[in-house]
């Protein structure tokens, strides 16, 4: 572009930007001096300086997409998105709130440092790259653990790891391998959560359920065991079974089941088998275990009392 002509064709600047975000070096190639670029980022100017050498061609707070674009330009061609932002791009829902933070991975030899909302991690173990929406992301196992390593609230880590495993984005084995071979900084909380999963609990929701049960004062149920009726037919595999009174407790995530082919139909069929066997069943959404534990405790006690007032169904735990 001929020097000075950019002012007559500003749309060319936008065409060479990423959602309106552009390097000052690229502007110079197009005939915009660095002095002019930074002057236009002044208090009354039409542009906004986002990061060192990176400007937004608008005088407005950047959108999240523009913040990501600026971070990627700051990181350069070898940078990958990881952590919370990458997890959200994968479509995960239980991602901890990390504010404006954008976590980048760059090769260890790069001399790049944190700046403002950009967290730069230099690593000798660059993960496999996955492209989503034109952005290079760390593969989901690494991205998950990169956000978990920066969390101190074990409940947030349980929720994310549970979703990743339940929705089959990754597996317990891959998460454990990555945790063992990756950075040990901040690994205590994700290590605790993975050890809980290894103890035989089938999901993080069931770990939360165990904690709610401990507050109830009720006898300990049997966890994740198959039930058969008097004729030896399979009834169900409840999350918790109070064998003394014949009460089943199911921690059902409706949003999860509806994503699985025929998942909702299977839940209805299971409840039909419970009814045919005369089993009283309490269903609880996993989110309520964390947001309304006192109410769930009250419901669990009431259901246990109701089951105790009935004749115990002729159902047994499979050997």
Can you tell me about this structure?
The chain has 319 residues and is an alpha+beta fold. Helix content is 42%, strand content 18%. It has 14 helices and 15 strands. It has a 4-stranded mixed beta sheet, sandwiched between helices. The chain is elongated and about 85 Å long. The model is unreliable at 254-262 (pLDDT under 50).
Radius of gyration: 27 Å
> Overall pLDDT, averaged?
89
| Elements, N to C (H/E) | HEHHEEHEHEEEEHHHHHEEEEEHHEHHE
How large a portion of the residues is in β-strands, by DSSP E? 15-25%
Largest sheet: 4 strands, mixed
What's the total helix number? Answer: 14
Give the N-terminus to C-terminus distance in angstroms.
Answer: 79 Å
Top keywords for this entry?
alpha+beta; single chain; four-stranded mixed β-sheet; three-stranded antiparallel β-sheet
